[in-house]
Specification:
With 399 residues, the protein is α/β, with parallel strands linked by helices. It has 15 helices and 14 strands. A seven-stranded mixed sheet has the order 2-8-7-6-5-3-4, with helices on both faces. Strands 11-12-14 form a three-stranded antiparallel sheet, with helices on one face. It has a two-stranded parallel ribbon with strand order 1-13. The relative contact order is 0.16.
Length: 399
């Protein structure tokens, strides 16, 4: 492990400049990712944008096969998008909702998803239902089953790893329910792809959205959408299509693309696609099992060390916890906390109440310190964070 860690850090130029514990926000990119993007941009500058695409077509197509390998599916199931939210909304726009339909989701689904559901409710008169949580935290599959049986929803939507609380929700159990009842199933894997092994066949989702900037260590502005054969064969399509996602066959007719390109647009940033491909290849080379084990270890180490400080309370829930850890600290102002850590080149993030209204209200907090280590981080970096927070607490920077 020590030799691998040394190599991972050697591959990551950012570790020389900061202690980066904000991987749930945007991880530090490996040099190969940076090189892939810079090389392509230089090619565009040298020979032209269309010409660079034509010259690099094989490498661009490799984006789809690499992401497919990560999810254990076929390349035809993968669409490039500009972000996880972009992917998620394209999938939402494809569901054939009718007035009075029901969406079943969870209390811990991501804020952007919750806002999208409320918009659909407002515009189309949909019923929005949130399944109950288990006592230990995370959605209760039995509650989902009861809601599905009673309301026959048009869609079930679950965030695999919520942005706070370290939860890993049981998306496979929910997927089994949706498969049994032939219910459309959308999974937000924005925070799980890249830190946990994922097999879409085990989850049985119809759609899965994710980003590259987080635990996959890719560039910002890049995401993907997985689309199942069931969804493709059903012919459902997003709003709006273009000349890539469909073919104009007559003045009053078009045919949607046969595979997940149906959910793409023609104008795509190929430099970002190649950077994302390199990030995916790098993750596969490290190995998802090794990544998951290392991230879990560092997150548990972080929880144990920070929770030992006076006035620090860990907010994480769930039987199975991931690499996202969150805390509240008595008598410390969040802005002062973040600023003082930044002065020491320690990167964290501070989610506010509006990012997790249901979760934070239940916990009676208005903000949280989120610390999210990745496999290239070290115990020493976490210890430096702990000592920095110890000093902040001792300094009495009151809320």
């Amino acid at each position: 492990m020590e030799s691998s860690l040394a190599q991972w850090r050697m591959d990551t130029p950012g570790v020389a400049h900061c202690i980066h514990l904000n991987n749930a926000g945007a991880a530090l990119m490996p040099q190969v990712v940076i090189d892939a993007m810079q090389h392509y941009l230089q090619l565009e500058a040298t020979i032209g944008g269309y010409e660079a695409e034509a010259t690099s077509q094989a490498q661009i197509e490799g984006f789809y096969s690499e992401v497919a390998q990560l999810l254990h599916c076929d390349a035809r199931h993968i669409a490039y998008t500009s972000s996880a939210t972009d992917a998620y909304n394209r999938a939402l726009s494809a569901i054939p909702f009718q007035a009075g339909d029901t969406i079943v989701t969870t209390n811990n689904d991501y804020v952007s998803n919750q806002i999208a559901f409320l918009q659909l409710q407002k515009r189309f008169g949909l019923r929005l239902l949130r399944a109950s949580d288990l006592p230990e935290g995370g959605v209760d599959p039995d509650s989902v089953r009861a809601l599905v049986q009673q309301y026959r929803p048009a869609l079930v939507a679950v965030t695999h790893v919520p942005t706070n609380s370290g939860l890993v929700q049981d998306v496979a159990a929910v997927g089994q329910i949706c498969a049994e009842t032939d219910t459309w199933y959308l999974v937000d894997a924005c925070q799980s792809v890249g830190q946990l092994p994922i097999a879409v066949s085990e989850i049985q989702c119809d759609f899965m959205s994710a980003t590259f900037r987080k635990f996959l260590r890719g560039p910002r502005g890049a995401g993907f959408l997985y689309v199942s054969d069931k969804a493709l064969n059903a012919g459902i399509e997003p709003l709006f299509l273009d000349l890539l996602s469909a073919t104009w066959t007559a003045p009053a007719a078009y045919v949607p693309h046969r595979d997940a390109h149906r959910f793409e647009l023609w104008e795509r940033p190929h430099a970002l696609m190649l950077g994302s491909k390199s990030a995916t290849t790098y993750a596969l080379q490290v190995g998802m099992s090794a990544i998951a084990q290392r991230v879990q270890y560092l997150a548990d180490f972080c929880r144990s060390q920070l929770s030992a400080l006076p006035g620090v309370r860990n907010l994480d829930q769930g039987t199975l916890r991931c690499g996202i850890t969150s805390y509240t600290i008595d008598h410390v102002h969040p802005d002062a906390l973040k600023a003082m850590l930044a002065q020491q080149h320690i990167n964290v993030t501070i989610p506010r109440w509006n990012n997790a209204v249901i979760d934070f209200t239940a916990k009676n907090v208005t903000w949280a310190l989120r610390v999210s280590p990745h496999y290239y981080n070290t115990e020493t970096e976490i210890e430096m964070l702990v000592e920095a927070i110890r000093s902040i607490i001792a300094g009495g920077y009151s809320a």
